[in-house]
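Handout, section 3.2

Students often ask what a structure token actually looks like in practice. Rather than define it abstractly, here is a full record for DUF3159 domain-containing protein. The first block is the sequence as you would receive it.
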Amino acid sequence: MRVPDSGATTPPDREPESLATLLGGRRGAIDASLPPVAFAAGWALAGRSIPLGVVAALVAAAAIAAWRLWRGARPRAALVGVLGVGVAALIVLHTGRAADFFLVQLLSNATSALAWTVSIIVRWPLLGVVVGTVLGQKARWRRDPALLRAYSLGSIIWVFQYLVRLAVFTPLWAAGSVVALGTMRALLSWPLVAACLAVSWWVIRRSLPAGHPGLRHPSPGTPPSAPPADHEH
């Protein structure tokens, strides 16, 4: 809840933004879910025709890319989505199994879960890497032990996000439930991303000690790779 401005200076331990405002993600999550939904709908409406489902997905991907370019997105960013749909289309046309259109999504979530887990273990949590890059901090946040710990705990939430998708998609893919896969692909896009952003932000805020200046102001501290200094009392 925002407090009305009374003219006082905002305390340094308050952050006016959230991960959602810093990282965004809503448009990308929604856009990424439209081609799979189009494939499932086209496949079902065309009498379980894989080629027509592929056409529907490619048309949706091309329309999204055109919209992004018109809105000023970089060409590479706009074409990445088309490339992903193209790979999924090639896979499903090769295997002839409609559910395999979602195989790329399955592998992507498995790879992401592994990458985020490894990043936590090696003390380079990807949430810190991403937010630090957005804020132009490079790796300065790693010299702040409190931020390093907070980003590590927040990154665990992102691992759970990918595991949730795997837990839902894998049995549906194994059962060949194409329409259910398309439906869950939509339900687990922006709603799940929004929940992940909100919970990981809460975890970060709860993890930072009282008086910490916040994400934008890493406090200098002992580098995580260095042994703790001895203090005389």
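Discussion prompt for tutorial groups: The first helix runs from residue 19 to 23. How would you have guessed this from the sequence alone?
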